[in-house]
Amino acid sequence: MKILSGTSNLKLSRNISKQLKLKLVNTNIKRFADGEIYVEINENIRGNSVFVIQSTSNPANDNLMELLLVIDALRRSSAKNITAVIPYFGYARQDRKVVPRTSISAKVVANLITNAGAHRVVTVDLHAGQIQGFFDMPVDNLFTTPLFARYIKRKLKSRKLICVSPDVGGVQRTRGLATKIKAELAIIDKRRPAPGKSQVMNIIGDVKGKTCIIVDDIIDSGGTIVNAVEALKKSGAQEVYVFITHAVLSGEAVSKIKKSKIKKLIITDTIDNSQKIKNNNKIEVISISSLMGEAIKRISNSNSVSDLFN
Ligand code: R5P
């Protein structure tokens, strides 16, 4: 077994490699002056099972293309098995036709990864679990709920907790966390009047005097979370902690969070945000490297991955 990293999140790849006590495969991945990507594998990988770690985060298209070229290079170098480890799976929010005449981009991405030559995909908190069905190969979707539950039990245990889903789509994820930490559940009825804009209509549940735990898969512009926090505070919430797997943090998101009434935003490192969140004590990062390392080990040894979450 070998692990190889793309360039989108080297920090995470290095931590996973430490965890597995394996060196990253020696590669030469660079950009030509016109933006084209060049990939070269500098060691023999013939007959090996290779795990390629690459988040398709911003710049999504470049990082996706790089992943495809690495997979292609591995296939042409006779790797026995290629697993695309995609901690953050970009384009996942475009998983259906919300209005007529639009692309189902997540399916196009799945086709590209398949045709490049991957045999398996490992990812984390897929925006929609059914994206697994876009692939005709095994897809292991890892969950961050145990990591978040551990943090909450360690740091927030004496508080009166209630888990809050920031929209109806996130109820299952939020209920999973609420069950694990034995907390109540509330739901925010969110509407999107226009793409990229969100509006809180109602809060279902009693949050008065409680510590709210919002959990979501993605924070992008920050609109959903900042509005949710505002609404919860207006309804009498004591304080609001936010747990997010994929911190896309586009545009003014970081400064919006700084100015908001969020007590703390806890994110993972599926996307490398080291520069963006430098010296920001409102944002804390929990690493998923040990979870990913363990999952890779189990896949390689043909052991159960789902046991990690029981
Ligand atoms: C939507 O269904 C996702 O789970 C997130 O709530 C959404 O992507 C967050 O976007 P933003 O931060 O731009 O409101």
Structure at a glance:
The protein has 2 domains: 161 residues, Rossmann fold, CATH 3.40.50; 143 residues, Rossmann fold (3-Layer(aba) Sandwich), CATH 3.40.50. The chain starts with a strand and ends in a 10-residue tail after the last helix. It has 8 helices and 14 strands.
What does this structure look like?
This protein has 310 residues and is an alpha/beta fold. It has 2 domains: 2-142 and 290-309, Rossmann fold; 145-287, Rossmann fold. It has 8 helices and 14 strands. The protein has helices at 10-20, 60-76, 105-116, 145-155, 171-181, 223-234, 253-259, 289-300, and strands at 2-5, 27-31, 37-41, 49-53, 81-86, 120-124, 139-142, 161-165, 184-194, 197-204, 211-219, 239-247, 264-268, 283-286. The protein has a 7-stranded mixed β-sheet with strand order 10-9-8-11-12-13-14, with helices on both faces. Strands 1-4-5-6-7 form a 5-stranded parallel β-sheet, with helices on both faces. Helix 1 (10-20) packs across helix 8 and helix 2 packs parallel to helix 3 (105-116). The longest helix has 17 residues, at 60-76. The two termini are 26 Å apart. It binds ribose-5-phosphate. Ribose-5-phosphate (R5P) is lined by residues 93, 166-167, 169-170, 198, 216-224.
